[in-house]
Each structure stands twice: as structure tokens, then as C-alpha cells.
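User: Some background: our group keeps a shared notebook of sequences we're curious about, and every so often someone picks one and asks for a predicted structure to add to the entry. Today it's my turn. The entry only has the sequence so far, pasted here. Could you supply the structure so I can complete it?
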Amino acid sequence: MKDAVHYSDKNDKKKIILYKPILFFLVIINFAIFTNVYALVPNEILVIANSNVSGSTDLAKYYMKKRGIPDDNLLVLNVTKKEQCGRFEYEKKVSTPVQKYLKSKNQIKCLVTMFGMPLKIASLKLTRDEKKEKSNLYKIKKEIKIKLLKSKSDDEKKKIEKKLATVNNKIKTFNFQYNKGAALDSELTLVKQHNYSLAMWIPNPYFAGFHRKKLQFKQSDVIMVSRLDAPVYSDVKRIIDDSLYAETNGLKGKAYFDARWPNPGEKDIKDYAYYDRSIHLAAEKIKKSNLMPVKKDESSDLFQLGQCPDAALYCGWYKLANYVDAFTWQKGAVGYHIASAECTTLKNKRSRVWCKKMLEKGIAATIGPVGEPYVQAFPVPDLFFDLLSKGKLTLVECYFFSTPFISWKMVLIGDPLYNPFITMVK
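Assistant: Of course. Here's the predicted structure to add to the notebook entry:
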């Protein structure tokens, strides 16, 4: 997984450091800032199904009946069966009909994409000039590396290495600029908007770490999105039923948090270390909540086969696209694995990405990227689990308040209305 200390705002190109505003809001969570979307209700949800996939509309109707969502809050689209669609198809067959629907239903705050809807949008192909620019950069890099091999003195080598670092930065900037693929759900957050860049990410105005920051979009410009999806029809039905069961009876079991290093304490850290500390903090906050027993590991090894019975909550890292079968999942379990490729597919039978395998094994809600997200695009673990444990916000609200970026790679899978601790917290 790649990391980056800064992101570039797509409009003004100003450099903004991500970590310091997050650190403040992890120390003090002021629930007053969440009142704008507090208590999402059924009639504020639009459910989106795909007429080309058997079971998609049936599952949508099943979910709507279970949650009391009005019948006319269903939009059935005619879109590809494949997990990936092109940008043109997304705009013509997904975003345009959703925009049209929202004009007549302005109370909608959340979209639910159902089993059968595409998972991701392909990046736009490079133009001839862009291909030429990219080719030239790699050609220059190759020439510099040849010169480096032929260098004879240390001074000459240092000068060439400096040139190589410069061209590598140019290549990285180019790849950032032309990375226009996205999770379909994350792109749908801006379905009401028409004028924004497709390159890289956009700061999420719901994110607690950006509270009071002047951003491109306000919360009212953005619509929350969650997905009810899984490898097969029966898994989706189980997710719906298990979420309702756990919400009624309380989410029971154990919480597992898998860090890679010991907690660094209050040091000023960033990148991987920042998220590792956040996993430590998440474990501490769930332990203080007294909702369930907590097991935390801080070694470089992951939890292994059979080490996590009765798992209700989980967050850990880093095993790329290779699920470790350590867990027996409780009804309504919520968790995610921080790694670069864990939601690239839900349908490939041979894939062992974590989102797919966790859903097959019995989890009810999970989060993952459809492509390289960079580490700071993940929901901040202690913020997400702390909000969830309070029993005040729904799953989709907890996700949006803890996730830094939209129009990007991340996907939330689960019932957006799910509140696993609503009956357990006073």
C-alpha cells in the first residue's frame, strides 16, 4: 500500500496536511458536529437495483419491506452485469437517472446500491498527448538509470540520483493527475454535482477531521452511499437479516484489533504509524465502553487460524488480497482490513480479497477499496469504532464521519441504517 503525506485540492492545488486536523478530532469528539445527519430514517433512503441481474430487484424490495422504506424509493436501472462499468455508461445509465429521481425527492440523504450494481468505474483512457507525455517520462527515467550505472565517482552518482528522484516525482504526479477510476458508490456521493475534477480524491465534508475547514463542497452537496452486496444472493439476504437481529438483540461477541507495532503514545507520527496507533486507540475505546471483551495484538504477525472466535468487531492489517481464516463471525459483525485491494471484486470465485471472504464467512458490514487508495483514504479506525459504539449514529453516518475522501476508491458494504449498539448503550 502506498502512502502520501499531502493531497492536492483539485481546484486551487493548495497543499493541505491531512494528519493534524485528524489528531485533534480523535482527542475530542464533539457530537454537536454530527447533528446535521443525526438519525437517518427510512424515507430518506433511495434503493438502486439493476434489472439485468437476477435477484437484484427482489433483494431491494425485501430490504425495503424489512426497513419500512417507501415503495416509491426504489430506482431500477438498466446497467451492465459486470463489476466494472465505463465512465460514459456510469453517466448515462446511473448518474443521470439518479439525478432525475432526486429532483422530485429532495428528502433523500442516502443511496443504497444493491447486489448486481457495478462495483467500480474504469479510469478514462489517456489521450494521445497524455500517452506521449507518460512515455517521455519513462524514457527519461530509463536514460537516467543507465547513466547511474555508468557513473564513476560519488559526486557524479549523487547528481544523477537527484535527477532520478526528480523524474520519479514527476511520474508520481502524472499518475496522481490521471487516476480517474473510482468506486461507483464513492462517485455517487457527488451525483448532485456537475463541476468537479475526476482526478484523484475530493475532501469529504462530513469527515470530522475537516470540521470547520473550507472545502470544495458542503455536506448538503454530498449524498451518503452504502451497498448491500456480496458474492451471492443468499449472502445479501443474510446481511439484512443479521443486521436486524443484532440491532434488536444487541451485537454480542468479542472485539479484535490487530496492530503491527507497539503503541507509540503521543508522538507526532504520520502515514502507516498514524493508522497503526489509531487501531490501538480503537481497542482502548471499545474496552472503555464495556460493550464486549477486547483482544489486541501488536506484533507484526496477523491473527491466525482459529484465534478469533465469536468476532463481533475487527480492524487490522496488513495481508494483501489473502484473507486469513482466523474468525468465526457473530450475527451482525462489523469490521475491515486495511490493505490496498480488498474490495476489487466480490464475484470472482478464486479471489481471496478480505471483503469478499469476510462476507462469505458471515460478516454483516465491511469496508474496502476497489483499487489503490493510499493509506489515509481508509476510515480512521478509532473514530469509526468510537462513533459506532456510542449507539447514536447509523452505520453509514459513522462511515462518512470517519472517512476523509469521496470520489475515490472506498466502499461501505452493509445496511446503512444498521445501529448495532442502539439497545446496548444508554
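Suggested note for the entry: The first strand starts at residue 6 and ends at 8. The two ends are 39 Å apart (CA to CA).
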